[in-house]
Amino acid sequence: MCCLLIPGSSRANPADCAALHPTIRSKMASGESSSRAPSLRFPSPGPLGNAPPSNNNAHSLAITNEGAPGGSGAQSRTEISHANNPQTGPAGRDTGAAGADVRVDTSPHRQHAAPQQPTAPPGAMAARAAASSSSAASSSTSSADPPTVSLASPSLPNTPSSSSAAVLVYREPVYNWQATKNTVKERFAFLFNNEVLSDVHFLVGKGMGVQRIPAHRFALAVGSAVFDAMFNGGMATTSTEIELPDVEPAAFLALLKFLYSDEVQIGPETVMTTLYSAKKYAVPALEAHCVEFLKKNLRADNAFMLLTQARLFDEPQLASLCLENIDKNTADALAAEGFTDIDLDTLVAVLERDTLGVREIRLFAAAVRWSEAETPRQQFQPTPENRRKVLGKAISLIRFPLMTIEEFAAGPAQSGILTDREVVSLFLHFTVNPKPHVEFIDRPRCCLRGKECSITRFGQVESRWGYSGTSDRIRFSVNRRIFVVGFGLYGSIHGPTDYQVNIQIIHTDSNTILGQNDTGFSCDGSASAFRVMFKEPVEILPSVNYIACATLKGPDSHYGTKGMRKVTHEGSATGTKTCFTFCYAAGNNNGTSVEDGQIPEVIFYT
Predict the structure, then answer these.
(1) If 447 and its partner were Cys, which of 153, 197, 357, 574 is the partner (CB 3.0–4.6 Å)?
(2) Dihedral sign of CA atoms 506, 507, 511, 516 in order
(3) Residues of the chain where predicted confidence (pLDDT) is lower than 50
(4) Number of alpha helices (DSSP H) and beta strands (DSSP E) in the chain
């Protein structure tokens, strides 16, 4: 009967992180797999490598074989002993001049190692060479593990054939390693992923990817309140093996590395699973490192994927940065491969924003592409009805009224996603006045960042300005580049009223319409100016003449007097001044001038 336990080595495959979105986790590899060096189970209790050497200056392990052929039923005994040489830490460092000593003794009566080192027989010399080679190989795999010795049994006396040869692979005991570490950090770093002094093991991952990782309760409890409660709380576990099926081995090792040594080991493939582990075990310092890594690597092509994870892990600062990136690079972010993998809540959060820098027809096309990927994930056929079903609330956030009639007719009207009633309602909105109510948002998106600004060019408001189908116009120029997003217009003097209005900005020299919107607004009868917005911001260049134009249909309104030829706006934060200069616009004009009339406000971004 053999009393030697010879565990085999295995290579762990990363397990999927249970918390990740199902369409994203397949893209998240856990990084490099790691293999745990197999170790020899010593019969004596206590942590490996912390007992002082025995009186005969050797650590020994006996291997007995009962009834071996040629042994007449007696036990042949193989002893493996190590000279008492100081060990200096991780594998790969010098462990003493003598090294590991291997003796083979076939005497059935020998029970203990000799006090002195005898000359080893030829078989043991071959074994020693094999042990030395294996130790050197193991040192190249992990600088934190103690040295290992591999003993491939030679053709021992009293063994019938090579098929009965034993293979011994174990972790060498490391005596007095503490003396070689000058700081507490070095000593704790040495214990990372190390059997030395370990008093708990974690079975990390699931399925074939489970990895057994040694650890130390004290080190974990010092660095994590969750581990402290696990080991020292009122319901502390007494188990020496703890299963963690929802954590990936590479992420858990990164967590332990940080707890033992303050070293951060994260990469593009493991950062999200490491962030999950850091949150699970309440290690905010590692969380911060993960978030900072994501910020530095945030790009348009991964902004949607990171936004999904930031929302999942409740990282509002990271989520805000992802949304800002999407605002600035909307077209590129929508075209990225990962866009179709986001969840519905993330899609809705993006479509709700007023600051997306892309036309609505592009947003609609992106939403359709997402629905085509989502229907099979929900095991639906990719029919128009099912695409509408998976889009849910998202379809109502597409601002179809901001499209041109040509864009709507060529795309959404023929997609089958909108109902017949919705299509008819939107066509009426594009073609008739007064415009019927539609169920979709008609508020323009503004892709500009910063604070909205406005200027008022009148000092007083009077009553009764009539309309007969002629445009109110005013010419203006500015001293710096701005983007006009709308006008403020006066409303009725007769109480709450609805107006139909067409607003335009025209380049004076070329008579080109740079922006317009045929829309309406409601007023409450007050003398305030009511906002009417363009579908898209209109770029205004410095020292160039433009005409602001508004054609209203409705009852008599208020109008402004005591107009100013020059109006200056000063930014509160930067102190930057934007100066407007107004002039009379000749031609077909309803009477608006510098001194009085309509278009009291210009709304813009710098």
Answers:
(1) 357
(2) negative
(3) 1-170
(4) 16, 20
